[in-house]
Amino acid sequence: MLDKSYEPQNKENAIYKKWEENSCFKPASDLNKESNKENFTIIMPPPNITGQLHIGHALNNTTQDFLIRYKRMKGYNTLWIPGTDHASIATEVKIIDALKKEGLSKEKLGREEFLKRAWQWNEKYGGRIKLQLKSLGCSCDWDRCAFTMDDQRQKSVLHVFKQLYDEGYIYRGEKLINWCPTCKTALSDAEVEHVDENSNLWYIRYPYADKSGHLVVATTRPETIFGDVCVAVNPNDERYKDKIGKEVTLPIINKKIPIISDDYVEKDFGTGVVKITPAHDFNDYEVGKRHGFEPIKIMNLDGTMNECCAKYANLDRYQCRKELIEDLKSLDLIEKIEPYVLPKATCYRCHNAVEPMMSKQWFMDMQEMAKLGLDAVDNNELEIVPNRVQKIYRNWLENIKDWCISRQLWWGHRIPAFYCKDCGNTMVELKKPETCTKCGSSNIEQDPDVLDTWFSSALWPFSTLGYPDDTKDLKTFFPTSILVTAQDIIFFWVARMVMLSKKIMGKTPFSKVLINGIVRDDEGKKMSKSSNNGVDPIEIIEKYGADSLRLSLMFGNGTGNDFRFSEEKILEDRKFINKVFNSGKFLELVLSQTYETKLDVTKLNIFDKWIYTKLSEAIEEINKFIDSLDVCQAVNKMYSFVWDEFCNYYLEFLKPYVYSDDQNTRANACAILKDVYLNILKLLHPIIPFITEDIYSNFTHQFLINQNYATSIGTFEKESKDVEKIISLIQKIREVRLSYNVAPSKRITLVVDKSNISKDSLNIVNESKLVLSKMTNIEKIDLLDNIDDDSIKFVSELGEFYFYKNEVVDTEKEREKINKDIEKIIAEIKILESRILNPNFVSRAPQQLVEKEKSRYEYLLNSKNSLEEKLKNLK
RNA sequence: GGGAGAUUAGCGCAGUUGGUAGAGUACCUGCCUUACAAGCAGAGGGUCAUAGGUUCGAGUCCUAUAUCUCCCACCA
């Protein structure tokens, strides 16, 4: 028995449990079942364990689950691997915050204790995430669930690191890198975010060393003057040509530095003179290198100034700036101060200012890697949907710099580099070496740093399948089929997976990437942890059910377009599920009042043939849409087929038959209804898995999740067209009844002019007598040889029909109505004339179209004439 | 500074080879018709941001402009 009404809240968890217990999420190959088709594999983008999932994750995972469920029913050997990401820096930031509240710090706790905390954190939040995914109905194989820090994934990371080191792609060196003084770690370029900040451009006087006056330097960072190695001008700048080679004296510390020329300097910006601080600015670093200057470090890693900065040593850089400006002012060395907006580099995790700093770090050489990534799209090994995103991907790879992969953090994969403390030898090994390979000393220490969290993510498509071990999974499921992800991690993640998969595995990790849109809140703002407007999917699921949430996320939103989330939309979309549920109730009711026979295909009436044709068309269209990853359109089609065609028409067509007095008619009608309905459940299962499973098992005592996808008995063109004509007749009758204000309860007579209707039309009308009377409240159909002049005439595709005037009446309404119709027709005639009377159209448009328009034109002219005549005869 | 997307009915949106603008929701009218009032039947509502262009024909292709959003970016 189905529930009294649609109430998903208490059922979904139980259904999910049943699926799990019955290994429904396993690939067929695991269960030694034959699967008739190839593999279909998705590796889930692992959510960070920093917190819980929001609606954006729900959208992402619903899309994946939709595809997996669809392919599973299509007979593919499907595997969806779930997992979570340790999110090195993000998690560490969170844990440090939590420690702060306890009055603790990372340092006080020590590395070992800190890592214990991190693992506890993982238990808690990783667990919550899994629960959320299950609530959403994700049919992933939990036995294969992976975590970027679990043993197998650690093993993958070590192997890849060692291989790339041995091959020379990974190296260690001192370079200018992005440093977060708050998180106290290096960052990659991708981890730096630029935000506009209102600041100033300070014009500082640098006196010439020979005291012959001064140069004015414009800078946004006055506090870095202590690290200046020279000042630069453009070689073609007439103002300064004769000054090149002279020296200026740095204020405060009175150090002499030369004036050099470099093309990098723009004549038109500021004063055309740039101070060069190689240790604290990326451009200056390049300029300094070109001219052979050693960078001078002036900052400590915590963002305070160091001993090079005279009395400002140990001041924070911003405090230093403030005091320095005051001091320069009192020395009359500030020419002027202009307000200036500059893009400030900030840390993508803590959002504090990032400093370029000289530091010894590990890097990955990206030149060759980038080429691999570009090849993937150039050779069509990788398709990105929507296509425009490919440009972003390509642009990033074309401008890539070496990747700084070491982080001064504790939570992450410890770099497998070991240093001999006696001779300084570096060894990269999977295990700590007992003795130094060079000097034999046993005084060996491991590098304290960990890897960028995205290093392990980059290996995800093969680490999850068991790399570096030669596993069956790796052989069977790599490369995977499709990646579904969000646009904002295309650099962090997608590009790096492609590069490293090609490098390590020799193959592109997936052939397609589907980029889903960004979820916004109901005010249109991006949902994110930082803006704190995220919505917990579980909250929504508890209120409306997972099916409602899933449907709402996928319905009526262009695939890849941004999505505006609102509870109102869920309420609207939930109605569809209610509709599906209630049509199931109807089937149940009808079955309870009859006995069932085997479906007799030879006994289909025109309505049955129509719905099967419609079902075929729907299946075909939906398949096409899903194959082109247009999930939105697929769901739109499901919606209109089920609601409009099945519920609104077919169920009504069917009623006279399922309530028929003839047992056989009744039994067959029920069997057909059941067949169509069960196929609809199959059709809908990928989008609303719980309710469809619940109803399906209620009728069949079988799992729906593992059934084959929907099929139809066939298509019947003639009957299908006939029924379309009946539908238009029904609509016409309803319209006419309403326009004459005939009470819905009033049963009236439909009149047919015997001499003026085709045999075919008459047959169709006869066959649909029952249906017509039920759906339009027609009492009887009169076939007459002569029609009274004052009968109410209307035209449908089946021919001309009439109502008796005394049953319908009201001349005034009639006149109004006819006038309105004529107006409409005239408008359309005008449009058609503009074409048909245009010789260009007639000669250049496709012949078929021309014919069609012409006959439509004829038809409209006739209709217009007869209506005008009608109007004349109206008394 | 560079790039991308958006602009369609009151609202939030769909519309892939160019061929008379679509569903949902809201509003209006009439219905508690034995699956469903979370429903049924019907009506109204749009020079598809603006201006040009290509074409027999443009929401759809091209070029500008405007507004909004996002991404990238070292002009000190």
Descriptive keywords:
RNA-binding; four-stranded antiparallel sheet; alpha/beta; four-stranded mixed sheet; 29 strands
Task: Explain what you see.
By secondary structure, the chain is of the alpha/beta class. Helices cover 45% and strands 17% of the residues. The protein has 28 helices and 29 strands. The chain has a 4-stranded antiparallel beta sheet with strand order 6-5-14-16. β22 (480-486), α14 (490-505) and β23 form a beta-alpha-beta unit. α19 runs antiparallel to α20 and α20 (663-684) runs antiparallel to α21. It is elongated. The protein starts with 11 loop residues before the first helix and ends with a helix. The mean pLDDT is 91. The protein binds one RNA strand of 76 nucleotides through β8, β12, α7, β13 and α10.
Number of strands: 29
Q: If you compute it from the alpha carbons, what radius of gyration comes out, rounded to the nearest whole angstrom?
A: 37 Å
The low-confidence runs, each spanning 5 or more residues with pLDDT under 50, are none
Order of strands, main sheet, comes to 6-5-14-16
From the helix content, strand content and strand pairing, which structural class follows? alpha/beta
- Major sheet details: 4 strands, antiparallel
- The number of helical segments is 28
Rounded mean pLDDT is 91
Q: How would you describe the shape?
A: elongated
Strand % is 15-25%
